[in-house]
Design brief:
By secondary structure, this protein is an alpha/beta fold. The chain has one domain (about 10-250): Metallo-dependent phosphatases (Purple Acid Phosphatase, chain A, domain 2, 4-Layer Sandwich). It contains nine helices and 13 strands. It has helices at about 25-35, 65-75, 90-95, 125-135, 140-145, 150-160, 170-190, 220-225, 240-250; strands at about 10-15, 40-45, 55, 80-85, 90, 100-105, 105-110, 115, 195, 205, 215, 225-230, 235-240. The strands form three sheets. A six-stranded mixed sheet has the order 6-4-2-1-12-13. It has a five-stranded mixed sheet with strand order 7-8-9-11-10, with helices on one face. The protein has a two-stranded parallel ribbon with strand order 3-5. It is globular. The chain starts with 10 loop residues before the first strand and ends with a helix.
Length: about 250
């Protein structure tokens, strides 16, 4: 089904990679980026890419973060490289906005679609909203840059943010109904009919009562799956290695 207006190029959607530096998954993640480099596709990172990312200086950023930023900055001269922060990324837009075609802390609207990480559509958002308000601003950035034991505190934050684990699909039914309600409100607010997000880790396609569309891109960390949105707005979920094979056949 065609869900949005025509795109300038196919769009690769990557969500919830949660890549740990100096692991095999880091190597695989960058293999995927090299694969994207060989195509004419645009790319959108839907948050929670490198886990945990506090962009407040060398005390927090590892070689993997700098390597990712270098890739994005190089590729934005050849394709659209879009980014929205997740709940595992802090101050990325404030410090590294220039590495992307566009970067947002929460929402990004493009080609008639609203893109977001998805945490702002989750149930029981009250505490999380307060945490975001403290963390994702200039004051929080200053505190993390100054805090003597900042990296140790970041480790505590990481354990706290990961404490919920990866929920199974049955447990997601009620939160997803709430997310649908939130998405309908986002559609009215931003004047769109299609919302694409990550955060919930499971692939979901919903046609809401008013004809609007909600799509959730699955977590890359689980099985290496990505989304591919064609220029005609058709969304496919597939393993990134199948995407590589598809692009090779196309070439």
């Amino acid at each position: 089904m065609t869900m949005t207006e025509k795109l300038p190029a196919p769009l690769v959607l990557i969500a919830d990679s949660h890549v740990q530096p100096a692991t095999e998954r880091e190597d695989e993640f960058f293999q995927m980026l090299d694969c994207i480099s060989s195509t004419d596709c645009d790319v959108f990172f839907l948050g929670d890419n490198l886990d945990l990312w506090i962009a407040s200086g060398d005390r927090y950023e590892a070689d993997a973060h700098r390597r990712f930023l270098a890739w994005c900055e190089h590729e934005k001269a050849r394709r659209r490289v879009l980014m929205v922060e997740g709940n595992h990324e802090f101050y990325l837009k404030r410090h590294h906005d220039g590495c992307f075609t566009a970067c947002s802390e929460t929402f990004y609207k493009s080609d008639g679609i609203l893109f977001l990480h998805g945490d702002v559509a989750q149930k029981r958002f009250g505490f999380h909203r307060c945490f975001r308000a403290f963390a994702k601003n200039a004051f929080g950035d200053w505190v993390m840059g100054w805090l003597p034991f900042g990296p140790a505190f970041a480790g505590i934050m990481k354990r706290f943010l990961s404490s919920g684990g990866l929920p199974n699909f049955e447990k997601l039914k009620k939160p997803l109904r709430y997310a649908e309600w939130r998405v309908a409100g986002f559609c009215r607010k931003f004047g769109v009919s299609h919302v694409i997000m990550g955060h919930f880790h499971h692939p979901v396609h919903r046609e809401l009562d008013d004809g609007r569309i909600m799509d959730i891109i699955p977590a890359w960390k689980t099985a290496g799956n990505i989304g591919l949105l064609t220029v005609d707005g058709k969304l496919e979920i597939l393993p990134w290695k199948d995407f590589r094979a598809k692009m090779e056949r196309k070439g």
